[in-house]
Amino acid sequence: MGAVLDLFRVLWEPTAVFTRVAEQPKFWRPLLGLVLLQVVIVLVMMPYTRGVTEAMVQQQMQARGSTGPAPNVALFQYIGVAAQPIVLAIILLIVTAVVWMMTSVFGGEGKFSMLLSVCTYSTIWYILQLAAGLLVLVLKGKENILTMEDLQPALGLDLAFPSAKGFVAFLLKGVNPFSILMYWTIGTGVAVTHKLESGTGRKIALAAFLAMLVIGAAIGATCTPKAAVH
User: Fold this and answer.
1) Model pTM?
2) Which of 21, 47, 53, 164 falls between 20 and 30 A from 141, CA-CA?
3) CA distance 83 to 143
């Protein structure tokens, strides 16, 4: 239970949490806590995503000239919910691999299992970002959510450049208070668990942040459906 509670303690006392991580790295229990929070948020968000998804599927079927019955969008949504643990674990492994490489470059030998624990606890900021996005959707109301873009409310630099599209748009979305705090927390965790100066930890976190910013923007621009839904 203490490992799960540390998911929240890391928000205000990261040094204490990562001191415990240095003594005994943990992954599965904090991951379970993250997954449960993410699943709850995604389930609450489903009424807002279903209408847009159904309209998008209908539009794609019309573009292909298909006249058959539309697929069960709700079923696909629940499959997506069930896949959340796998997706989150893969993302954590990618982030940890990048942090491990940057630690090896700037701070000497990195300990992958310990860095995986650091990144897992720091990902609570990503969950808070999802919660903030859900809050924006609730305030907008389902009737005002008409496109895939509406499902991705601006929380970062994309607020200043609303006309940005594609790769640049995802770069701007990636620079937001939650992502900055996540990597600041990772920097603290790297410094504490690997007994490095705080400045070195920040340097590692910044390098990892920039690398993941480019990777995430490339994936987002590639995977996001192009067609708008009206």
Assistant:
1) 0.89
2) 164
3) 28
